[in-house]
């Protein structure tokens, strides 16, 4: 029944839905809604509602776990992408370092082969070279004037700021990159101030000692030397462009580093959010387990209450059935008692009538005895005349024989009535054993009494006839008064009639005694019935006491049901709180999902930017390769020019040297101006 109630649809008030309530009542019986309190239905509805909430929470927890798994998968994919980006950045940094080494190598080769530092003087204001100490002293990094001054000042400061362990760990290239990043952070005014501090025509060493460079000035003579100078100036210009592109590439690498740091911070934030979501999911799982435990406990309590209610209802139904049976028996016994009381009253009335008749018969007997005495006295006078009337008495004897036969028949009837009375006694005994049959036996006794009354009436009629005959005989005696025989016959006749009357009176007396015994038996039976009725009344009182005690127990169970209703209301409040917490968790999960989506979109956009940066790096590396090819070609041309100069004459050599020096000075001036700008 509990499963049927739980399976039914419930409304928000905790009651069975209207279209299903009537079908439930038809299937379970019309008294189910009265026997089953509404509190129990509310409890069942609350339990069904709680089970629905528990199912919803389990589904939400499963969804949360799936979302956490998806977030972990996305996090894993993001970490893989970041690792790939780090690898690509490390490769790009390696390529940049290779490009820096190549540029340094080119500059060192120029300084060795072209002897550019020896041809520069103090009059060159926008050109400087900083010689970096390191493991390879042949590496010379070509910079512009302001940057050289900055490196000259900041290099010893940076070395002094480092500890011994940091100096051992950090290479010259890392320190150069750190100082370069500081140079890039400076504003344009600060860079211009450093540019103003550059001495003209100086090659600045790291120690800060300016190197004196001899200076000679010449002028161009012919167009061939001018074309060579133009090619050399073009190579120098390309070298400057490559240096500018290299600086731009370094700035892009710094931007990429900042974007990588931003992505790493976002990844850490996403990891923290995932950890928070996991903790929140664990809390929700613990809350769900606690709510499921509470629901199971409430279901167990509800089942125990239902079993106890069913037991009490069965007990109450049994007691009600017993009370109904007893009430029916009491009603039957009361009706039988009333009938027996009415029969007893009628028997008492009949007894009184019979006593009156007996008194009358006794008076008649006394009159007859007096008359008999008178007749005996007259008989003494007429004894001598007896034989005269013998012939007349023969006829009278025949009449007497007829009357005797009639009396025998009446005696047989009386014996039959005695048998009937004995059967009545047996029926009364059976009535004491079975109260239902007593009514029929009383009806039979009433019929027997009516038949006896009829017989008494017949006897009365016969007595009246006999009285009439006696009157006739008296008339005959009066007529035969003269004749003594008539008187003797009349005397004998009256004597016989008196005897007959005495016998009849004796028989009637015996019948009256039998009726009295039957009346006493009926009184005893009535008393027994009264005792049974008293016993039934006592039993009814006991049942009433039991019913009262059961009503007390029912009240107690009603109180317990009220307490269970309170517990159910508390469980409803707990479920409502759980539902609110779940709604809040849903909102927070939606916010987190939005944050995760946002982070994923940002990561995707960062990935796109990284792809673009890699494409730019590839393009820049291609440009660097092209520049390197151009530098190699310029070195080859420069070698050829130097060979030609070595093969030529002295004044031609001097002119070519002057032209090359002039072209280099003009190129250095142009490079310094571009660097200052």
From TrEMBL:
Region (Disordered): 107-126, 214-233, 644-677
Coiled-coil ranges per UniProt: 54-81, 309-371, 421-574, 610-644
UniProt KW keywords: Coiled coil
Keyword Coiled coil: yes
Biased segments, Acidic residues type: 222-233
Gene Ontology CC: one annotated term: cytoskeleton
Polar residues bias: start-end ranges: 107-120
UniProt xrefs under PANTHER family: CILIA AND FLAGELLA-ASSOCIATED PROTEIN 58-RELATED, TRANS-GOLGI NETWORK-LOCALIZED SYP41-INTERACTING PROTEIN 1
Protein name, UniProt field: Uncharacterized protein
Organism: Symbiodinium microadriaticum (Dinoflagellate)
